Amino acid sequence: MYVRSLTIRDVRNLEAVRFEPGPRFNVFIGENGQGKTNLLESIYVTCALRSFRTSRLAEVIRLGQPSARVAAAIRRGGMERELDIVVRPRSKIVRLDNKAVRPLSRYFGNFNAVLFAPEDLQIPRGSPGGRRRFLDRSVFTWRAEYLVDVQRYERALRMRNALLRDPRGSPKQGPELLTIYDGQLGTLGARLLRRRAAFLADIAPRFRAAFDEITRAGLCADLRYEPAVAGDLHGEEPELAQAIESALRERRRQDWARGTTSTGPHRDDLTFLLDGQPAQRYASQGQLRALVLAWKTAEIELLAGSHGEPPVFLLDDVSSELDAARNAYLFDVLAASQSQCFITTTHPGHVLLSADRVDFSVRGGAISLEDSA
């Protein structure tokens, strides 16, 4: 799988960009604030129809412009697909092979991209919400239909919370509608939990092996999923849905008082473990970064196996955050992966690759080939 061509119009400071990347390593060099991350964000939007930087996709539109557009030609499995997304302040137009996509669920899965950003290195010690988003991003690249269930769950959650906050409502006036939302959150939440649990079961052995390879310190790394609602994550979906509904009913009084839904998959957490202890409390900064690097290494391996070809890899100036040994390990993994890579950096020397490499300059939202001389 690789991006054959990319067209970007009015995405943040990228006014008009069109180029054909190389099939392996594409290195984008520029100072901070020139548009390097905006480029990776544009590519990610073509994959997920959402940004990794904001929950409001309309924020990618360049100031003063009515819309933004990203179009990509993707080569996958011997076939070429044309992806085209126009983002407007309150809507988006999505086309696949020059045809409108309905329903949008048909769009997902045509393009898989793994993102590794500097913020990811803080995930083990960050907030539960950050870890959930980190996990969900990975589950989506593994099973594209997962994002549709996430969006439906988020919509039902917003509606339930709006009812809880409505000053015209009360615990006596709104139970019927609340019961409907509880049923939706139970059904959709059970799907999210089972997908997350299945993904973690698949990635965990690869994650442990990668951490051991990175550190060679005899420490055991592992992952522990911590759902807010007790239930058999690998059992039958209806039973898990019923457990979520029951938990929501039990906490209705507290939810009315607080104006928010206090339990469900949106409250779950993921814990990184080091020798059985929570890494966020006991691991050094270097060990925490090695844990995230192990996750990304395992993710590339897992996706290559499950999809039959490696995903596109987006690396946003991570090299400057890693020590020399872990930086070398990362590029050894990429060299062996066969992935097409888009790598941003402030200095070309941070990218420890030479073969199959194309360098681009990024200045003021413009992208051009570096002068090889």
Q: What this model shows, in words?
A:
This protein has 373 residues and is of the alpha/beta class. It has a domain of 171 residues: P-loop containing nucleotide triphosphate hydrolases (Rossmann fold). 40% of the residues lie in helices and 23% in strands. The protein is built from nine helices and 15 strands. The protein has a six-stranded antiparallel β-sheet, covered by helices on one side. A hairpin with a 2-residue loop joins strand 4 and strand 5. Helix 4 packs across helix 5, helix 4 crosses helix 8 and helix 8 packs parallel to helix 9. It is globular, with a radius of gyration of 22 Å. The model has no long low-confidence stretch (mean pLDDT 93).
